[in-house]
Design a protein that fits this description.
mainly alpha, TolA/TonB C-terminal domain, Serine Threonine Protein Phosphatase 5, Tetratricopeptide repeat, 3 domains, three-stranded antiparallel β-sheet, 22 helices, about 10% strand
């Protein structure tokens, strides 16, 4: 592989240890070669934040040359030191020692600041380099009883293989709620069947300190595979391994996520994690969301590695799920006016998503938030209509979202009707419906409901 650099005076003959080239890097390099230094600097910085040492090297070279800003020897040396620590020792070469010796005290502090934020140790602490998704302080939820998903009629007469990977909230009552589809092959026809099956399942809740806690759990649903050839025989997987090895981020996400839950591909869990991380580094927003979410879920064991960097990159890359999560973070506790405005901007972007999970939460926030400046009844109802037209009809929370949207727009008859459907479906799943009944009473009284639409009663009885 040739050297990926923007500074011929610092470059060496070959780059053997840097990360492989990817589209975002090539875009940044193209901007640099066109003389668009400000744009190139911003793009290199985004990659450097995720540990791309070639981008860190290029930022150092640009700082030393005054490209995209004034000459800055301190920052330049700091970036080169960070690049060397993150795998680009050969590219950096032996230039740093001489440059470091010439720095002033202020420049030395600037260099140290760059390393403290973007060096290997700092990136490891943040969960960027070698992220640790384990958490010894808590035991994960597990499946206790799960009915096999019904093969959907709309898939046609010819049975074909399918896999759906769903993430669920498992409550302390051992029941599943709030499903999100992380992967579906094919994308339509099967998610609804998978969700219905998991909502009717029973689980052992996660635990911490000897007591049950609410948690998120990823679970797979497999549907009949023609000829019994397994996942590797499906068209989507036949060439995926070769494409993933060639650096295809989409194929890396497909293989990596599938292999975390299914051993039939012959990919170890360690290799699956590597594929997902490589896909995330190469700009796949779904993989970035997955990495960020995994770190967030185990942040009790490593608070500094809370997934925030990955989630921000995912949101910037178009992940509606990450946009929703960041918006929710901003709205926690007592948000400022600026935070509410930022959250609303994120929700407006997420509202265009076709994700069932995202649409449901966007509707809930825009329809029922206690913050007047966040609520948007018109958008809530518009998104709710798209939600209602989807193939997933087994989730009680979807009908709660519809009811809240109607109530926010003053249509309490429809709000009551949707809430009644939600309660009936929830009762069939053995959910605690006390708070749901309170919302129904409010709608029947001609009052909208304000608050967290999907919060569960704190001491919901566990189902038998």
């Amino acid at each position: 592989m040739g050297v990926r650099s923007v500074c011929a005076t610092l470059a060496v003959s070959a780059l053997s240890s840097a990360t492989p080239a990817h589209a975002d890097f090539q875009t940044a390099l193209t901007e640099y070669n066109a003389g668009h230094y400000d744009v190139a600097h911003a793009q290199f910085l985004a990659l450097a934040e995720l540990g791309d040492c070639s981008s860190q090297f290029n930022l150092g070279a640009m700082a030393l040359q005054g490209q995209g800003g004034p000459r800055d020897a301190g920052s330049g040396v700091g970036w080169l030191q960070a690049a060397a620590g993150n795998g680009c020792e050969q590219l950096v070469g032996n230039k740093v020692a001489g440059l470091t010796a010439k720095l002033s005290a202020d420049e030395s502090r600037a260099a140290a600041g760059i390393v403290a934020r973007y060096g290997r140790d700092a990136l490891h602490t943040q969960g960027i380099v070698s992220p640790d998704f384990s958490c010894r302080e808590q035991a994960p939820a597990s499946v206790l009883q799960a009915p096999a998903p019904q093969y959907p009629r709309l898939a046609g007469d010819t049975r074909r293989g399918a896999i759906v990977i769903t993430e669920l909230t498992i409550g302390v009552d051992g029941l599943a709620r709030d499903p999100e589809i992380l992967l579906a092959v094919p994308e339509t026809g099967f998610p609804a069947a998978a969700i219905e099956s998991w909502l009717n399942s029973r689980f052992v809740p996660a635990s911490r300190g000897g007591g049950p806690i609410e948690s998120r759990l990823q679970a797979k649903s497999l549907f009949a595979i023609e000829g019994g050839s397994g996942l590797s025989g499906m068209d989507a997987y036949k060439s995926a391994r070769q494409r993933a090895d060639a650096g295809d981020a989409l194929a890396g996400y497909l293989l990596g996520l599938t292999a975390t839950l299914d051993a039939s591909l012959g990919i170890s869990s360690a290799r699956a994690g590597q594929l997902l991380l490589a896909s995330a580094r190469d700009g796949d927003s779904r993989a970035q969301y997955w990495v960020g979410s995994e770190l967030r879920a185990t942040a009790v064991c490593h608070s500094q590695a809370n997934g925030a960097v990955w989630l921000r990159h995912a949101a910037d890359g178009g992940s509606a799920s990450a946009q929703l999560m960041l918006a929710t973070d901003l709205l926690n506790a007592d948000p400022s006016v600026a935070q509410v405005a930022q959250a609303r901007s994120l929700l407006e972007r997420a509202a265009s998503s076709d994700s069932f999970y995202v649409r449901k939460h966007v509707v809930a926030l825009l329809a029922a938030s206690p913050l007047d400046s966040l609520r948007d009844p018109g958008t809530a109802l518009s998104v709710a209509m798209k939600l209602a037209a989807g193939e997933i009809q087994s989730d009680p929370q979807m009908f709660e979202a519809l009811g809240a949207a109607y109530a926010a727009n003053g249509d309490f008859r429809q709000a009551s009707a949707q809430q009644q459907i939600a309660i009936r479906k929830a009762q069939s799943l053995a959910w605690n419906t006390r708070v749901m009944a309170e919302r129904l009473a409010a709608y029947r009284d001609g009052r909208p409901w304000r608050g967290d639409l999907f919060a569960q009663p704190p001491h919901a009885p566990r189902a038998n």
